[in-house]
Amino acid sequence: MLPSDLPALPLIPLLLSIDIPPVSSWLLLPFFALLGLIATGPLLFPNFWEKWFAHVAVGLGLLMLLYYGFGRNSWHTAVETLAEYFSFVTLLTALYVVGGSIYLNIGLQATPRRNVLLLLTGSILSSLIGTTGASLVLIRPFIRLNDNRAKPYQIVFFIFLVSNVGGLLTPLGDPPLFIGYLRGVPFFWTTWYLLAPWILATGLLLTIFWFMDRRNPYPSRFSRNEQRRIRLEGKLPLFDFNGRKNLLWLALVLISVFLDPQRQSWVPALDIMGNHVSFLREIMQLLAAWGCYRTASRKALAANHFTFTPILEVVYLFFGIFLTMMPALQLAAHVASEPAVAANLTPTSLYWLTGLLSAFLDNAPTYASFVSLSMAGHELSISQAESVRAFANNPATLPLLRAISTGAVLFGAMTYIGNGPNFLVRSIARKEGVEMPYFFQYIGRYAIPYLLPVLAIVSLLLMWL
Q: How many alpha carbons lie under 13 Å from residue 182 in its C-beta half-sphere?
């Protein structure tokens, strides 16, 4: 624990007192305009939004790209953002195809206990194959378990647990933790030091879900005796699993994640505008997606109602989000570097600052910015792996990294854009007939009343650890 005499961070007054950074405020308008359209378009003008959302998102993204390239001559930032976006959508696409080609059906009627067990299983699986992988493998079985009548709150808690909180235990779980691993954080550091926040957040959310699910029982199609009789006759297997061979493609995608030129010097990379751009990893992932789709069972794809519509929606929207987000990320980096902020870097303040920014911005660069700032305050450099390991293992600085890591992962569940799989799960659920809440409804009805108190309790735990 850090010394108790460190000052607490008065977030609102302090942030309001910071000078405007060297980024024109109007540059933030495309980002907020896109977020506003994502939030209100499906509700206020659904026909227009459904037809033109891709044009709007791509158009705003291209405008920002051209401005950074030709207007500011900042091609380095533009290329770096495009490379991050390409890596993001490549991995998401590969996992979407693999997840859509694996058919899993549980031959049981949904009950609160069974739903909780599946969510707990998904939370554990998220740290093994990533939040995106676990979400795409389990979202359809979860909907089928609830007899294809899943309710919005069930999908929202799936996003909370499987798409976000569950990825806290390994670098494979969530992009910020993988960035830390690439920089030098030991692989099992997250398993050991983030286990307590994972247990607390997962336990509280599952408990809340169980009480909610008990109040909304689903009528069973069959009595228990009828279910047992049908199963004994072989007509209703306990588990119907099709696509075992596609697990090999999933393994190939996960292995390719480690082929990062920043970590492995032998991995080739392209030098574009001063950026070392990875390409071997992305080629492997695209080949795995192509191979998986070509060899997948047509019956499994049909049973999963597989189409490319949900992933294309994410590809278009996040193109605009990534590019219009560039000024917002620069603003966040400026805020983090302010002396007034740096002087108040306690585990609690880092947890909330990193988390709140990660809920609306890309959590990986947010994580890297605050880790870099925290290390600079202790005369360490994030570019040196030995320094990062020392920062992660020093009892005086370990709580800072734990708070940043926890905030970056957990707060990704606060909005649909906080983490990649959130929007994808929403799109799949909508395609399966679930009336998912809109952007602000998600925040107002679920994230604030249910998730935010859990995040506050976790912050108390981090103060005690």
A: 19
Of residues 439, 433, 427, 435, the one with CA closest to residue 100: 427
Residue 150, C-beta contacts closer than 8 angstroms, at least 6 positions apart? 142, 143, 429, 432, 434
Burial letters 289-312, b for 16+ CB under 10 A, else e: bebbbeebbeebbebbebeeebbe
On the 0-12 / 13-18 / 19+ scale of CB atoms within 10 A, 22 is: exposed
Integer-rounded Cα Rg, in Å, for the chain is 22
In the prediction, which pLDDT does 453 show?
97
3-state secondary structure of 278: strand
Residues 135, 92 contacting (CB under 8 angstroms): no
pLDDT digits (tens, 9 = 90+) for 345-387: 789 989 998 999 899 887 888 888 888 888 877 888 887 888 9
Look over the chain and give the mean of its residue pLDDT values, rounded to a whole number.
Answer: 85
Interatomic CA distance for residues 425 and 140, integer angstroms: 9
pTM (two decimals): 0.85
- Residue 256 backbone phi and psi in degrees, to 5: -65, -25
DSSP string across 72-106: S--HHHHHHHHHHHHHHHHHHHHHHHHHHT-EEEE
Query: Residues 6 or more apart from 245 whose CB is under 8 A from it?
Result: 295
Angle at 265 between CA 127 and CA 94, to 5 degrees: 40
Residue among 56, 69, 97, 94 at smallest CA distance from 319: 56
Contacts with 395 (C-beta within 8 Å, 6 or more apart), sequence order: none
Name the nearest CA neighbour of 347 among 221, 204, 200, 463.
Answer: 463
A 10 A CB-CB count for 144 gives 20
